[in-house]
Structure prediction request, 236 residues.
Amino acid sequence: MRTVIITGGTRGIGAATVRRFVEGGDRVHFLYEKSDELALQLARELGAIPHKCDVADENRIKEVFSEIGPAEVLVNNAGICDYGPINYVSAETFRRIMDVNVTGMFLCAQAALPGMLREQKGAIVNVSSMWGRVGSSCEVAYSASKAAVLGMTKALAMELGPSGIRVNAVAPGVIVTDMVKNVSDEVLEGLRQETPLERLGKPGDVAEAIWYLASEQASFVTGTVLDVNGGFVIGG
Ligand code: NAD
Prediction:
């Protein structure tokens, strides 16, 4: 049974991923920032193990990863976004998005590595976004952070490949979760129409891609970005 750590596990893509790995027979630990109620609900329902932890908090990350012990798989999913023209984005907001989406991912990878290096085996899957590939208007911090995730994924794949550790990313398109709850129905419908597969994504679509990248079936796959976007962005 593999030990798997998933960040941002209480809802959306993270919760679907927790579910997918539990169904696949793994022992799943998940990190969450705020909602004790959602975390306990998921833990009770699935038997996954919750840890309250802000991924941008270096000391807490070290504490939690050492409590969990060695893990074979790390899914860096936790992320936040903000929407608005650049002149309305404060430096504080920009920094917080980079802290959670990029530094948090770096800290979790660093904390998971000692166990993986000892075993000379492991898989890390980072959740980027199609906006990290092509940029999204009025999402300067989010797009920059998700592009950084792609750079980090490729650099780590190069660095850790010789140690038997694979590092890949998924780049989801528009997935119906709380992250898009402030987007109007009209805009969502427009996005659906622009998608070649003519539907919006579900959290489970992304969870399946993450599951594959972490599996033995992907044992020769590293440094890649798997688009899960219905064809919204092809290439880029
Ligand atoms: P969501 O807002 O429903 O879930 C985000 C999760 O991250 C939550 O569980 C939240 O508690 C957790 N989180 C946020 N800040 C955290 C922190 N500091 N420490 C620990 N956990 C924290 O959103 P989602 O759509 O499920 O997003 C999951 C990931 O997928 C994010 O990285 C997001 O950028 C990415 N993504 C989402 C979409 C989309 O359309 N929904 C598209 C592309 C990429």
The radius of gyration is 17 Å. The chain has a mean pLDDT of 97. The longest strand covers residues 165-172. Residues 91-119 form the longest helix (29 residues).
